[in-house]
């Protein structure tokens, strides 16, 4: 494989710094290099600096390399999406219309739609069908500059289908250029056949499904929908603690629809991240800051459900490391556009354009324990790079509703453009 040398970027956003979640003013530090340059060899970044610096290092080897002239372009790390439900069957456009007519997300779910409806369609789909449908979504992620995604199960809600979803992600991680980091979410809902027997379903999750997932090494994280009418904080804690014993790192869908103690629980169990947090309490936010729980905020979901977005600005000011994500799923956020999410993070949560970029790269990588490999353009990390059709980073958020992706490289190989 020939080396790749991208040079003369108008701005190269390196995000160099500690491989740790960035907080407060660290979320404004982009490590911008003007007339920037990056050299990638065997998929790994070997040098980053000004074009002049890299010319001094590599001029004698330039004949070996594929050279890309990035004059006039912004260059960033590949975006990281740390929260998706991307491997599912069917779709739910009829629910979109129901919600426009006034039905709430929980009304639809309680009537057997929502997560239950996707669960039925995912149970019916074969593994190959799920691979084919999910591939289209992964292609779309790449086209929007996303080179790493997290993916959750949770549309099986039984042993066989939960394993099927996780195996689909495992296969795609090998087949598709995007890196997929898997999360088990058997506690996404109480399946309809267990209605009124919630504890019995939790027993199945804890005693049957989780041990299989761990034994087959199909997931890194264990996530729970801790919400009124779904799983209580006590039930969520039981499921997350059971996962911890098996080596699965906790995540929590917390305080999305109602303030329910989810942020506090995330701090208590030492979750790596808490998701949504639209209704998180001030005390919960404070506890997350103290325990170093990353807030994974999903402003496209808030918009799509016509809810007020999470308090992103206040969370950063309170010392919480913030990541952002599409929450790509068939019900509350059917999008694969991280650029849209960065824009919404600015408009509806009052992040600055620099903070939104940190939240979509290095902090997102930290939320899925991928910070050693991706999330910044630094020596030793993967050559995951986006060259944008804008020249300064603010334009990414300012010129909204347009896909500015020009070229995408995954591990030094061109995959878009
Ligand atoms: N809120 C829970 N789970 C997903 C939505 C799943 C669905 O509606 O299919 C979310 O994160 O938004
Ligand atoms: Zn989710």
Automatic annotation (TrEMBL):
Binds 1 zinc or iron ion per subunit. Its EC number is 3.5.2.7. It catalyses: 4-imidazolone-5-propanoate + H2O = N-formimidoyl-L-glutamate. Coiled coil: none annotated. GO terms for biological process: L-histidine catabolic process to glutamate and formamide. One of its GO terms (molecular function) is zinc ion binding. 4-imidazolone-5-propanoate binds at residues 92, 155, 188, 256, 332. Fe(3+) binds at residues 83, 85, 253, 327. Keywords: Cytoplasm, Histidine metabolism, Hydrolase, Iron, Metal-binding, Zinc. Zn(2+) binds at residues 83, 85, 253, 327. Pathway: Amino-acid degradation; L-histidine degradation into L-glutamate; N-formimidoyl-L-glutamate from L-histidine: step 3/3. One of its GO terms (cellular component) is cytoplasm. Residues 74-412 form the Amidohydrolase-related domain. N-formimidoyl-L-glutamate binds at residues 155, 329, 331. Catalyzes the hydrolytic cleavage of the carbon-nitrogen bond in imidazolone-5-propanoate to yield N-formimidoyl-L-glutamate. It is the third step in the universal histidine degradation pathway. Belongs to the metallo-dependent hydrolases superfamily. HutI family. HAMAP family: HutI. This is Imidazolonepropionase. It comes from Sporosarcina limicola. The gene is hutI.
């Amino acid at each position: 494989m020939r080396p790749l040398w991208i040079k003369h970027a108008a701005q190269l956003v390196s995000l160099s710094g500690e491989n740790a979640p960035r907080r407060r003013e660290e979320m404004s530090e982009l490590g911008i290099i003007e007339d920037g340059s990056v050299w990638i060899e065997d998929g790994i970044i070997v040098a980053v600096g000004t074009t002049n610096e890299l010319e001094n290092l590599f001029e004698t080897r330039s004949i070996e390399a594929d050279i890309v002239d990035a004059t006039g372009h912004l260059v960033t790390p590949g975006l990281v999406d740390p929260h998706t439900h991307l491997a599912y069957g069917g779709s739910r456009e009829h629910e979109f219309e129901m919600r426009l007519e006034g039905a709430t997300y929980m009304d639809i779910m309680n009537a057997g739609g929502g997560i239950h409806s996707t669960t039925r369609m995912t149970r019916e789909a074969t593994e190959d069908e799920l691979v084919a449908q999910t591939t289209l979504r992964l292609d779309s992620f790449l086209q929007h500059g996303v080179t790493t995604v997290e993916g959750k199960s949770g549309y099986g809600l039984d042993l066989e289908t939960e394993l099927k979803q996780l195996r689909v992600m495992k296969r795609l991680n090998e087949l598709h250029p995007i890196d997929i980091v898997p999360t088990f979410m058997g506690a996404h809902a109480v399946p309809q056949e267990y209605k009124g027997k919630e504890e019995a379903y939790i027993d199945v999750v804890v005693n049957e499904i989780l041990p299989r997932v761990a034994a087959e090494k199909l997931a890194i994280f264990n996530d729970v929908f801790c919400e009124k009418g779904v799983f209580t904080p006590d039930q969520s804690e039981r499921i997350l603690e059971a996962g911890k014993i098996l080596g699965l790192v906790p995540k929590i869908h917390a305080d999305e629809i109602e303030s329910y103690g989810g942020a506090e629980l995330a701090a208590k169990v030492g979750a790596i991240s808490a998701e949504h947090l639209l209704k998180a309490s001030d005390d919960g936010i404070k506890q997350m800051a103290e325990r170093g729980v990353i807030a994974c905020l999903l402003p496209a979901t808030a918009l799509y459900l016509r809810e007020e977005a999470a308090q992103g600005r206040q969370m950063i000011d309170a010392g919480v490391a913030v990541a952002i994500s599409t929450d790509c799923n068939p019900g509350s956020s059917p999008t694969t556009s991280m650029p849209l999410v960065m824009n919404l993070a600015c408009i509806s949560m009052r992040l600055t354009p620099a903070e939104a970029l940190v939240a979509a790269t290095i902090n997102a990588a930290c939320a899925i324990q991928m910070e050693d490999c991706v999330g910044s353009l630094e020596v030793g990390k993967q050559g995951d790079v986006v060259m944008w059709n804008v020249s300064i980073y603010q334009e990414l958020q300012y010129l909204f509703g347009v896909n500015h992706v020009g070229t995408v490289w995954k591990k030094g190989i061109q995959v878009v453009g």
